Amino acid sequence: MIRRAVAALLTLAAAPAAVTAQEVAPEWTSPEHVAADVAAATRRSDRESVQWGSSRRFRGLWIAGFEASEFIEGAATLADARRRSPTRSAIWFEYDDRTEGADRLSAAAKSYAGRVMQVEFEGRMTVGPRIVSPGAPPLGYGHLGGSAREVLVDRVIHVRDIGALRDEQSR
C-alpha cells in the first residue's frame, strides 16, 4: 500500500494543479486508507515476507532513536561498537506486536534523542535482501531501506538502558 501511495503522490506532483489525489487513486488515498496504511507500516515486521535464518540468542547494543534502530551484535559499550563496526553495522533492529516482552523495548524506541540499550533476546536475522516482487530490485531494511540486514526479536531476555546516545558519545 505504501508503494501505491508514493506512486500516487509522484503522479499527483507531476500532474496539473487542478488534479487531486482522489482523482488519481480515489480507492486508497482517502484519509481512512492512508491512516490505516501508516498505522500498519509503523509496527509491521517482515515475518512472512522475508527469508530468516534459524532462531538463536543474540547479545549486543541497540541504538534506538528518531528514524534509527541499529543493532551491533556482541558490543557491550558504544566504544566497543565502534571498534567492532567503525562504519556502522547495517543491521536494523526490529520487533513487533508478536514479540514477547516488546513493552520493555517500546520506551527506548520512542526516544527522539537516541538511546543506547544493552539487549539480549531470542530472534532471527535475515539471510538475504528483501525481494518485494519478482523482477523488482532487492531492497534494504529499516528506515529508507538503509540497512543490509534485519534482526527480528521473538522474545526479550534482558534490556538495560545505558543512557542517551548524546551522553554515550562524549565518553
Automatic annotation (TrEMBL):
Q: Which residues form the signal peptide?
A: 1-21
UniProt superkingdom: Bacteria
Q: What are the UniProt keywords, alphabetically?
A: Signal
Q: Name it.
A: Uncharacterized protein
Lineage of this protein's species? Bacteria, Pseudomonadati, Pseudomonadota, Alphaproteobacteria, Sphingomonadales
